[in-house]
Amino acid sequence: MPAWDVLNAKHLLSRCLFGYSRKDLEKALSYSTVAEFVDKELLANRPLPVPPGDWITETPTNNSLEGDRYRTMTYWWYDLMLGEGTNMREKMTLFWHNHFVSERDKVGYPQHMYIQNNLFRRSAWGNFRQLTKDVTIDPAMLIYLDGRLSNGTTPNENYAREVMELFTIGIGNYTETDIKQAALAFTGWQVTGLNSVFNQSRFANINKTIFGKTGNYKYGDVIDLILEKPEAAEFVCRKLFKEFVFYKPNETFVKQMADIFRKNNYEIKPVLRFLLTSDEFFGAQYRGAKIKNPMETTIGILKAFDLTPTQMTPTADWAYIYSQTQALQQQLFYPPNVQGWVGQRDWISSTTFVTRGSLSDYIVNTMGNTRATQFKLINNPVNYARTYKTSEDAVKLVDDMVTVFLQFPISAAKRQTLISTLLGSTILANWSTSTPGAENQIKALLKAIMRLPEFQLA
Amino acid sequence: MNRKEFLQQLSLLSGGVAFGMGGTSVKAFAHNPFALNIEATNGKILVLVQLAGGNDGLNTVIPYENPIYYSKRANIAVKKENVLVLNSQMGLNPGMTAMKELYDSGKMTVVQNVGYESPNRSHFRSTDIWLTGSDANEMLDEGWAGRYLTKLYPGFPIQIPAQPMAIQLGSVESLLIQSDLGSTGVAFSNPTNFYNLVTGTTVDNEPVPETLAGEELKFMRQIATQSVAYSDIIKKKWDSAAKNLYTYPTTNLANQLKIVGELIGGGLQTPIYLTTIGGFDTHANQVVANATNTGTHTTLLKTVSDAVAAFQKDLEKRGLADKVVVMTFSEFGRRVTQNGTMGTDHGSAAPVFVVGSGVRGGILGRNPVLSDLDGNGDIKFEYDFRQIYTSILEDHLGVEAQVSRSIMGNKDFTGLPIFKMATSTLLVSNQDFTFDINAANPFITYTSVAYSLKKQMNVKIALYDMLGREVSILRQGNMGAGVYMEIIEGNRLVPGHYLCAMQCDAGQKVVRIIKA
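YS: structure for the whole thing
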């Protein structure tokens, strides 16, 4: 069992949450073992959140409110991420959103995207078999991958292909014939109002041959046939590994995960628990090797400044995060295509890298700035520094802030640069948060820390 | 290093930015060993337009006299009277009036049935195949443009050219411009925004630990380096360009091409540009029922057609049309038989358009054979997509046949008669000396470089690692005319990439070698 110390706790939190605050870290370390923390906090079941509005049950009609409602729902999800505490349900909700992809521009009504988002949240670590079946006839998915239009005589292959290629077994484990036959089995489902309804007359009520087996299969049968293939468990476990550990998977370990996944009849929780308490997960080689996604970067900055959902003003603060995460290429409910966000190096381009830097500068600039229009409740720099016990010792303060903000160990030279940045024209012996100008020096330090490429690593 | 310091360093070095050159003595020579010639393409430029999602080729270049087309596509076929006639059999989608004009004036070549053996019908896999130039069953993580550019600039990434090697309009870097040595390009949507965003970005060249995280750090640093190095020149060239010589449509693709036109007009010498338009995955409702000359697909094609034609007109006004060629491509065509939802599922071969003043025009290839489809009901390919790449490399960008063959993975892809006349080969060796790798590469125990001198001159041949540090000097001195060879022993070299540079009074050349 991996040791439960600061380094390992930071690693676990930075991978399973959207960043963390010092309070979260203390809470994690109040448990005596990693397993205890994983069971009682990260994977603890919690009641579902209050929905983003009454409109979620409204029968879809074209009323030009879609744009505003998507915004409301996106801000609502930001709130849930920022307020997640030490529970990884929102991380898993995003994981499934990025796995069973639907895009708002094609789905249209936010009600449908809400129903799907709620399914992901309810099933965050439920049963993968059941989740895949539910997704197959989920209204948003029936719209997004054309299932609602498909019919038994001339089916549309869109969902049949993507469910195999991207959702369950991956390329190379099915034939074009399997896709064509599965497309027949998926027919009959349509969307009426907020519901999926089965229309027998549109269903291909005939025998289908999939993976060499023949029967008059329906949608659930296809999922069962797919999950009989050993590649399915490996496919999903590989994706979990890539999300939580490293984008180049350790195939031997993925097989161990898959073994557990199958033995537990595709229950997600046991495999997550296995992964998050394994020596592999805490391997030193993986520390700081994940490039944060834009939600981890932005929500993580807010958490590092101890901000909470009640301190956020949606129209100012969340609107800013919305525009910035959009620029960083991660708009919630709007993945780029059916493959979802690829992650890791795809997050970084000549434009997005520099945008990340301008974003952290911008947030720090609001500290102590009475004329700032965003993040009005963020601490002023001196008070923020004083939340660190070491605030009056420049070297220790730098070390402590680096501990909060960075997972990647920085070099002695960079540490020295950061210390000089904090000191400015002051000398070490004279450093105090009461020094005139300390405010700007603290801001300069915070900006410099977050401008380091190391800051982008979790 | 901040931008100012960085640019100072840039201006100190002729032709580009160098890293870790501090310990290298090049006093005997006028230039540093990696000085690169950005004009090696003679100013020729390739602009790619990626149609993401799988463009329905049969409803793009339409076999309007083929009864099978109308029987297999009863609800979605474009009627004969709506087709923009190219010849007695084929016509363009009614949305493509602007490209029809290009075709009529001989500025557009249509290459039919372009695909590859054992077509893959996954968007993502097939896109990778097109971008990397791989076989169907071959996984490459270098884009074909990335391979071209690292051949064009062998000093990369020790030294990056003074101007970007590739520019992508957008924010997620494409595999097209990736190489084993990192990204060869920059990605942005607007030069001014890009310039402003880069302000405040710092770059250091501290060694990174040899860990997984260190690799990711190195990757980010290289991206940041190029942002810092290029945001200035991009903005400067863009600012200096004449604007609005031609009015582009207001679509996103047209805007991308407008910026490309302005960058080229401003004198940026970047040889490769990538623009993208999505939405071609038309499984459902690609046409309007009973009005098949309208609908989603026609709108998309009109967007492409209008944008490309505007770009061509803009370049003509700038007097640069002979320098530039545009190629459209998509990961696959679509199924011949329509599905039941007024759309088409994933297919295989499809037409490619090559546009520019230098093309021959006309249609290449047979008309799609709809009576002899593959086992999946898709069109069999006639031309491998890499034949078009080969033509562009050799006949437009002026790459030697041997080099373009190696960019295409040392496989033979015969070029097609797309261009009026082949550009005289530009990547040729200097008249007064030659220098090249002469044995195994990659190598394990040893390899060698061979060189010849036409007259007596000063020569230095040295080996550098990828940080630009001189590993060893193979030869230095004044030498007479003749043919020579130097051995590079592998036993003292750590596996990886190295550069072997020859500098002499007549010029310099760099070759990249790999110790396995």
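YS: worth flagging: Chain B has eleven helices and 23 strands.
IM: good catch. Also Residues 212-240 of chain B form the longest helix (29 residues).
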